[in-house]
Write a structure and sequence with these properties.
Layout (H helix, E strand, L loop, with lengths): L4 H33 L3 H20 L5 H17 L2
Helix pairs in contact: 1-2, 2-3
Length: 84
C-alpha cells in the first residue's frame, strides 16, 4: 500500500489514464478488424483515412509505438490494394 499522498494520487491518476488508453486502443483495434474484414474496395477506401487518423492520434499521444502504427497502416494499404 502507498505510504505517501503523492504516491496515492499517482495510483489514482495511473488507473484513470490506463482506462482512457485502453478504451482508445481497443477502439482502434476494432476499426482495424472491421477494415481487414471488408471485401469491398470502395468501402475499404472510405474507411482507411479514418483508421489512419486514429492510428496517428494514438501514436502522437504515445498510446501505441510509431513503428507499430506504420506497420498497421502499411498492411492495411496492402490489403486494400489486393482487393478486386
Amino acid at each position: 500500500m502507498a505510504n505517501h499522498k503523492s504516491s496515492e494520487k499517482r495510483i489514482r491518476q495511473t488507473k484513470t489514464k490506463t482506462l482512457h488508453n485502453r478504451y482508445y486502443a481497443k477502439t482502434m483495434r476494432n476499426a482495424v478488424r472491421k477494415l481487414r474484414a471488408t471485401t469491398d474496395k470502395e468501402e475499404a477506401l472510405k474507411l482507411y483515412p479514418s483508421v489512419q487518423k486514429m492510428l496517428d492520434k494514438l501514436t502522437k499521444t504515445n498510446i501505441i509505438h510509431k513503428n507499430k502504427a506504420a506497420n498497421i497502416k502499411s498492411s492495411l494499404a496492402k490489403h486494400i490494394n489486393g482487393l478486386a
